[in-house]
Write a structure and sequence with these properties.
The protein is of the alpha+beta class. 16% of the residues lie in helices and 42% in strands. The chain has 15 helices and 36 strands. The strands form 7 sheets. The chain has a 16-stranded antiparallel β-sheet. Strands 2-1-5-6-3-4 form a 6-stranded mixed β-sheet.
């Protein structure tokens, strides 16, 4: 190599050195680059380095000059090299030939993290590899980047002083370099005290509750950590709260934090609340369809009110219950509606407001398409929709359609989407319902042991929730069974051998003759055999059937459903002295053949927003069950119970009301009230169709028909409710409050935990009815919804007014564990 010529050099520290040539050149000369070659490349493409350097064969270069230094800097920025030098190779007249000599940095083959929890380690490795892929050169830039990633991750966990020791180690086995990272998170920043100053209008306790992520250490086990990003978000949340109250000038004027001798963090937040602003005038512009008075009523603000811009904008556009001005227009086809809030003037603490409305033309629905339904047929979905081509566009109709589709149970609610495409020139809106199928079928295969009868029993059941009866004999439709018509077919068999057998079958057509009218036909047979203490055999059997007709009732909306059913049951008793059915004086009804023919009418209203974990909505049910008044047509002077009750006559009423209150996105409160009453037509009340309170809400082995079992968690039906009753009750009340928290919401399964408080009681008749004499309980539990199996859950209830169960501690004597399988108990 002839001479070192105007050399640019960069080392790991990033300094630039210009070397002088061996022959003295004091005047800059211009050369043409005749050739460039690269030495020292093993992992990097030499041609790529030449291209990225910016030097080209044929380019003019001035020496001395800055072109070589710029080329070195460009190569250094690649973060692949530890050293770069450019030398003159030789000269030929006006040509100069250059050599780029590089020293490559070692490439990281894999990362190895130490000093962290297993779950943290896995996530952090993914973060590092996503931002710094394997094969990255080991340079100072890489080391700084890794430290930044690890420090940021630890800071999010509340460790703001993490340190990282790193070393690049060559692994002779895998023939690669391993970057060993030893992480020391240090001590977690725990907040001892959050102190506010300058707040006169809002209490400090309220402000602390507004800080969702930054909490004081109230006790030894409380969760308290300081994450600066989350802390800043909490301060913004406080300011937003002040603004929502009308204090528009509120701000955090200063915030400081320091550590005490024990290493605990103290936060001091100084607030400037400012003045409260009022609405001096409110004017509407551009509205021709609705009056100012109506719009102001929906807005909920008028002259003299405190000015709360967030609430006003919410009532204009995004009220969570749809009670906003935007919904008023969108529900009647004005898709291009706009409403802008303008602050016209500010005088002192008063603001003049103007709301400018662009109503836009009336839009109609164009094409309505469905995607994602692999099994369910289009017409089954379309019949549930309230959006049809040619109709005026309505957001409320889309919401109703969405709820109906979710309540079908065939589709994953989390994957549901509605897409709209507006065609302003045509005045139409295309709507696409995007669905994702999930199995709604349920299979039941279970076994168990009933401690009351000391028997082992088994259950086999299947419920096809999307059956297609018309495709039974169609070739290729069995995949694995005919499906897609939305019909329901179920079979269930339960047995413990000869002692107990139960068979059930039902079929439902939800849309009769293409209209929203359902028809259900069902039949059942149950037989039980018991051996009494004296060795006598006792037998119980019942068989029957039901035909039910249901239809939607369009009253104020379409969530009200009417069901009318005709039912027949034949109950046979032989030596059945187990007090399941008793007369008014408590005498067991042990022998006879009894017929239960009744008409049942029910009204059900439900607008829940989710089938498994509703966060808002209502459920209401009222039913009446009537038998013919046989005593009015014929006299029955027999005092023999088997004759006087041969054809049962009664009237039976059931009422249930449930409301869901959203608390957070994953938490909801359910409030429920239930009541029931059984009466007669002037004669003795029927020993059948009564109410039994307590337990887990399931009949023993699901074997009885003619008794309504009402769950009251924490209590035993026989021990706690048979004391003041002669047989089962004719009247009951029950109240429930349940706080639910969603743990899992996935297509495969959903789960939540809950805490409950219940109170209820049952009475023999109206004479001793006392609505304030209630048995109370509290407890906890969980529910899991598993595909193909359905609902599974466990409750543990503690009864405050129950009869102590044996000996032991308080929890074992007054508590009760209940298992839920298949359906939620009554």
């Amino acid at each position: 190599m002839k001479a070192i010529f105007i050399v640019g050099s960069l080392c790991l520290l990033g300094s630039i050195a210009l070397a002088q040539p061996t022959d003295n050149i004091s005047i800059a000369k211009t050369f043409e680059i005749g050739g460039i070659r690269v030495e020292g490349c093993q992992l990097t493409d030499p041609e790529a380095l030449i291209t990225l350097s910016g030097l080209r064969v044929g380019d003019k270069i001035q020496l001395p000059g800055i072109q070589t230094a710029q080329a070195v800097e460009a190569l250094w920025k690649l973060q692949l090299l530890k050293d770069v030098q450019i030398y003159e190779d030789r000269r030929e007249d006006h040509l100069i030939f250059l050599t780029i000599i590089v020293t490559e940095a070692n490439r990281v083959g894999r990362f190895r993290l130490r000093g962290l929890k297993k779950e943290w380690k896995k996530q952090l490795e993914e973060d590092i590899e996503n931002q710094l892929p394997l094969g990255t050169a080991y340079t100072g830039h890489l080391q700084n980047s890794i430290r930044e990633i690890i420090s940021a991750y630890c800071a999010e966990k509340g460790f703001a002083s993490a340190t990282v020791d790193m070393a690049l180690i060559y692994d002779s086995t895998s023939l690669e370099y391993v970057l060993d990272l030893e992480v020391d998170c240090g001590a977690r920043w725990k907040i001892h005290q959050i102190k506010f100053s300058g707040n006169q209008k809002v209490k400090s306790s309220k402000l602390r509750r507004l800080m969702e992520n930054t909490k004081e250490r109230a006790h030894l086990w409380s969760r308290s950590r300081f994450v600066e990003r989350a802390y800043r978000e909490d301060l913004d949340r406080i300011v937003e709260y002040y603004h929502s109250m009308g204090y528009l000038d509120a701000a955090v004027s200063r915030d400081t934090f320091w550590w005490d001798a024990e290493g605990l963090l103290h936060l001091n937040v100084q607030l400037s609340e400012g003045e409260l602003y009022y609405i001096r005038s409110l004017k509407w512009e551009g509205n021709s369809i609705y009056s100012d008075r109506l719009l102001s009523k929906i807005l909920g603000f008028e002259k003299g009110d405190v000015y709360r811009p967030q609430q006003i904008n919410q009532n204009l556009h995004f009220h969570p219950e749809g009670k906003d001005v935007s919904s008023l227009y969108l529900d009647y086809g004005h898709l291009l509606f706009r409403a802008d809030l303008v602050e016209k003037s500010l005088i002192g603490d008063s603001i003049d407001l103007e709301i400018r409305i662009l109503e836009g033309p009336l839009a109609t629905i164009g094409r309505v398409t469905i995607s994602g339904n692999d099994r369910t047929k289009d017409y089954v979905i379309r019949r549930e929709l309230d959006t049809r081509p040619g109709q005026p566009f309505s957001r409320a109709a889309i919401i109703r359609s969405q709820r109906r589709l979710m309540n079908m149970g065939y589709f994953d609610p989390s994957a549901f989407d509605v897409r709209t495409e507006v065609h302003p020139e045509e005045g139409t809106v295309d709507i696409e319902y995007v669905l994702k199928e999930r199995s709604a079928d349920k299979f039941e295969l279970a076994g168990g042991w009933d401690p009351g009868s000391n028997q082992v029993f088994g259950t086999v059941g299947v419920s096809f929730r999307n059956f297609a009866f018309s495709d039974l004999f169609r070739k290729g439709s069995w995949r694995p069974y005919p499906q897609g018509n939305g019909q329901q077919l179920s079979f269930r068999v339960q047995s413990s051998g000869l002692d107990f057998q139960s068979y059930n079958i039902s079929f439902t057509e939800p849309w009769l003759n293409g209209k929203p009218r359902s028809l259900t036909v069902a039949g059942f047979l149950t037989r039980r055999n018991e051996t009494l203490a004296e060795g006598t055999d006792a037998h119980y059997s019942v068989f029957g059937g039901v035909v039910d007709y249901g239809a939607r009732v369009r009253f104020w909306d379409d969530y009200l459903v009417s069901n009318t059913s005709v039912n027949f049951q034949r109950i046979q008793l032989e030596n059945w002295e187990l007090a399941d059915f008793a007369l008014e004086d408590g005498t067991p009804l042990s022998d006879g053949s009894f017929h239960n023919f009744f008409l049942k009418q029910s009204l059900t209203y439900t607008n829940l927003n989710h089938p498994f974990f509703p966060t808002k909505g209502n459920f209401f049910s009222l039913s009446v069950q009537l038998t013919p008044p046989y005593s009015l047509f014929r006299k029955n002077n027999s005092t023999e119970p088997s004759q006087s009750f041969k054809w049962l006559e009664y009237h039976k009423w059931r009422l249930e009301a449930t409301k869901y209150f959203p608390i957070t996105q994953r938490m909801t409160l359910r409030a429920t009230a239930k009541a029931g009453y059984l009466g007669g037509y002037g004669q003795a009340v029927s020993p059948f169709e009564r109410f039994q309170l307590g337990g887990d809400g399931l009949n023993r082995l699901n074997g009885y028909t003619g008794v309504d079992v009402i769950a009251l968690r924490g209590y035993d039906e026989e021990r706690d409710f048979a004391i003041n009753q002669k047989g089962n009750a004719t009247l009951f009340n029950k109240y429930t409050m349940e706080l639910r928290y969603l743990l899992l919401d996935q297509p495969a399964s959903s789960a939540y935990v809950h805490a409950f408080a219940e109170a209820g009681n049952a009475w023999q008749g109206t004479d001793n009815y006392n609505p304030f004499d209630l048995k109370r309980s509290v407890g906890i539990g969980f529910r899991v919804n598993v595909p193909m199996i359905g609902l599974i859950g466990v409750d543990y209830g503690l009864g405050f007014d129950k009869t102590a169960n044996g000996s032991g501690n308080f929890l074992s004597r007054f508590g009760k564990l209940s298992l839920v399988i298949g359906i939620e108990p009554d």
